[in-house]
## 1
Amino acid sequence: MDGTSFDTVKTWVQQAHHIAVLTGAGISAESGVPTFRDAQTGYWAQVSPEDMATEAGFRAHPQRVWDWYQYRRDLLAGVLPNAGHQALAVFQQQHPDRLTLITQNVDGLHQRAGSSAVLCLHGDIFEDRWLEPPRECCRIDHAVPGHPPHCAGCCNRVRPGVVWFGESLPSAKLDAAQCAAERCDVMLVVGTAGAVYPAARLAHVTRAAGGRVAVLNPSPSALDGVAHRVLRGTAASVLPSLLAD
Ligand code: OAD
């Protein structure tokens, strides 16, 4: 990695009143969680997002989709937050109110590392919710177990609480992320290909508002061109020293 860029970004972080961090699947890679778009190892190299991450895909093959999310839940139960997640959590604890953490990840690893008020733009894989608007009889804790579980009263099906393609992001979280992107002095974009909007737009928002943007990624990303500095490294190897006092 270019040491000058690292020093520059570290100075920005130290001088910033407010820092926004946008994370993607890459920050969890060193915990053993596959990313989506990395060649060969990424989920989308094995299954199609149309099949596994759309409402139509779920309606067409509910068992297949449910079982895939169950497989991912089981995988996540066996991994731990890494030094990248931990560095962000420690920084937030040492500098309350200076850091807004925005993530596209649904894996809960930021929260398990100790980060609070994480703006999870794409939901939470461990959450269950109803496919159809719930009726009186729909009680998640009483759902009949199955692949997927369903309501005994009306057969409504349970689906994972993640945001699928074509669905809206949780509006309050997106608004809060947008505000943080506008007001921050520095945005760190960590471990995302920058291919999915509106999350990727946040980096553009910061740049347009006059803030600094730094990308941390071992490989080229779609947001490199928006960044004032690109740090070629991994989250777990760079974030601890970047965020240390
Ligand atoms: P991607 O899989 O698209 O991108 C992961 C990025 O992480 C790539 O740019 C890698 O180069 C980078 N990377 C890999 N290892 C890394 C490491 N150790 N440290 C830092 N970076 C590393 O994942 P996202 O950009 O998060 O949406 O994808 C965005 C959304 O697309 C996801 O939230 C998911 C997916 O479809 C939904 O499921 C709704």
## 2
Amino acid sequence: MAAVRRALFPGSFDPMTMGHLDLIERATRLFDHVVVAILRNQDKRALFTLDERLAMIAESCGDLVTSGRVEVTAFDGLLVHFARRTGATAVVRGLRSTTDFEYERPMTLMNAHLAPTVDTVFLLGAERYAHVSSRLVKEVAQLGGDITGLVPEGVAARLRARLHGDQAG
Ligand code: PNS
């Protein structure tokens, strides 16, 4: 039997956006198993706790999680060490722009230096989500803008609840 092709999709996911969800779905068409991996100890202050971010991703991925194609988890330390522990041979990252590319390039080269057998695979972000980032979504939501379609429904509800105290989330 052919070996299971396992990929990591790492990030901060504070919160997950539709751009992330699109990339996860596309990654499942390329790999047998996709591990969405939230970096645990970050310097920057997150709006959502790790547990909230785990829950939002699991909810949003729905059937992909229940069918076992996607797993959502957290990691500490080096990404390549986590890749080795989980048996992942690839890291999937999305690119929206050349700015993203410049941000990704040193990380990718460092990861390749540390673990030459773990490759990074870039997927070009869908054009309809090219303007969508966790940071901008939080800013728009904070300032009362409409975030419909930019994040999964459950994430939008939690954002409204966190930022404006709505009961919906
Ligand atoms: O969503 P983000 O914040 O752009 O994701 C960045 C992430 C989590 C992929 C990156 O910070 C990471 O892999 N951190 C783990 C620490 C690590 O491995 N550092 C050395 C190689 S860059």
